[in-house]
Amino acid sequence: MHSMNDVVVGMESTGHYWFNIANWLVDRGIDVALVNPMTTKRNKENRDNSPSKNDPKDALVIADAVSRGFYTPFSPKDEAFRRIRVMVTNREHWVVKSGRTKNRIHRWLDIRFPEYRQAFDDIFSDRSLATLRRFPAPSDLLQLTPEQMVLIWGEYMARPGGVRGKNKALELQSLARHSVGDTTALEEDKWELRHLIEEYDRICRIIDEVYFTVFHLLSFNEAFQAMHTHNTEVKRMTKMQSMMKLIGKLARMLVAMAKQGQTFSIDKAQLPLAA
Question: Global pTM?
């Protein structure tokens, strides 16, 4: 109709709905342009001075944005890049979920045992988690002796006792005696806390599995092997410190590769070693 030979398909990169059709089009030699949802949102009022939303109007706004060059060309990523992106995206999901679960545990303590944080700077330490699993409420603590508490901690910790363990048990019991926490429907709330702790443990295991990716890179990637060796032998880092540093570097590299549309480069990855 318009004497055109080529076509560009523009689509809004909302959620995951565009992904399969975009790959299908590219496989058939058709160019795909992705428009940022914020671009279409800002430009909706320019069409009819209204922020209203409907399919014909959205299509017109997207087409207008593509015609003026406000888009990002879509090209499928290499399999290796996509595999890593899936792992990073998954980790972000579980980190967010971990934060929400932690907040619910904090809320539980604020209601049931608000004095608890006076005994533990980190309520997710091994000793604290063992306490929350077995005797989280003030009334539970007061039914045990310090020695019994230490024995129970021993089920979850390598070194639960000693002076530090006994003093911690006495401190918790002292706080429990003067607690102002709510005691109504306590058994039901303890059931909730038990499942929150189980959920927290499960999420932590998943997050640990996701960053096993770095161990894989150290096994097969020359650049990361060299950086690991430099960190441990020259900078005198422990192996775990080096691992944590490489995790951060991997994350920054993935962001840079995604923004600039570049592939992995051993030379660029090893540039900091010269510094």
Answer: 0.67
